[in-house]
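Before relying on records like the one below, remember that each one covers exactly one chain. Contacts with other chains, cofactors or solvent are not represented anywhere in the record.
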Amino acid sequence: MFTSGLQHVAAMYAGVVAPPMIVGPALGLSAKETAFLMGASLFTAGLATLLQTLGFWRIGARLPFVNGVSFAGVTPMIAIGKGEGDNAIPVIFGAIIVAGLLGFLAAPYFGKLVRFFPPVVTGTVILLIGVSLLPVAFRWAQGGNAQAADYGSVKNIGMAALTLAIVLLMRRFLRGFLQQIAILLGLVAGTLIALPLGMTNFDALRDADLVGFPTPFHFGAPQFQVAAIISMCIVMLVCMTESTADILALGRIVGRPADEKTIEGGLRADALGSVLSPVFNGFMCSAFAQNIGLVAMTKVRSRFVVAAGGGILILLGLCPVAASVIALVPLPVLGGAGIVLFGSVAASGIQTLAAAAMEKGENALIVAASVGIGLIPIAAPDFYHAFPEDLLVVLDSGISTGCVVAILLNLAFNHMGSGSDSRRGAGAGAGAADGAGDGGAVVTPETVAVH
């Protein structure tokens, strides 16, 4: 049970620590503070996983379901934190708590709304998540700090390219469990190569304690701002959509098809985990689809095995040194691996869109408009510079704007109208419940990280 649980942790470890590694430096946190966020994310991922697997009352899907920090919130959180200074983290945590409470209350009704989130919507959102994160990997590959003398140097980009090549070679030639953790192995190999080149910073590890507890509200009491709350509520809806798809897919794999009650319990666990997470300095939690692929590959379907993995995550979160080890990874090394990690998210979105019946109705138009609008903050960062600052929290997140546009256009084209158009729209979005399961979760072992 322990070794199988540890395998689940290894498969999702990089995905858990990557969001705080992105958000921390983007908000101006030190290496030690970023390492603290990573430890807190491991701890809260363990709590959320126990809620899902063991559950209590009507909370938890009670499936071998791994939960952790969602990638969907990274870009909106960075947008929220801009200009907030020392209040950035408290404002983000306040928004996540409110969004989690909304998700908890909405869980009983969300299963009934799944038909409004067919693959054309979920695929578009997942694609935008991956594309929105790729610029972060490119900045890492250049060195991370645009003011540094070696930013964009041949040395930095060369190290990123070497790490990328190592990850790709491992994915090509390794098999089974080792192939699953190719990104983690690539990070280790790249860091070892970078050591003699003087590219590794030991500050975070040197200052870390062997044992420590993530002090509640370490960065200050949560603050509640309307614009930030709206942005994170949208992220919560995205996470609930993805988790619903993952629950449906996992239910089929373990031979226990998920009914409305299972979906409701799983979404409640997601939401409650997201409410508790900021208390211990973690971010919004949702399902990790790569672990669904691991269940399919290993055929180990016991939820108690995954619960053991949740316990391991909690222990790692209580050991700051373990969290700090990942901070040793030079940013160019992380950038090379990040290209694969974030690119795989985008590829998962494309795979989901392949199940979206693009030839039916106006689905292709929905994707075109949603992706186009979602790419504005990436391609033209100053596009909304004349808009009120409160709106920028939402508008500067391509994921949030793209999701809203996709939902509204899907409603307009596939759920409204009359006559033949209405019937055609129903066909395009008809199997939303099934479609979300088929397209929203990527359950092949090749998946790296949807969240």
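The beta strands are 67-69, 285-287.
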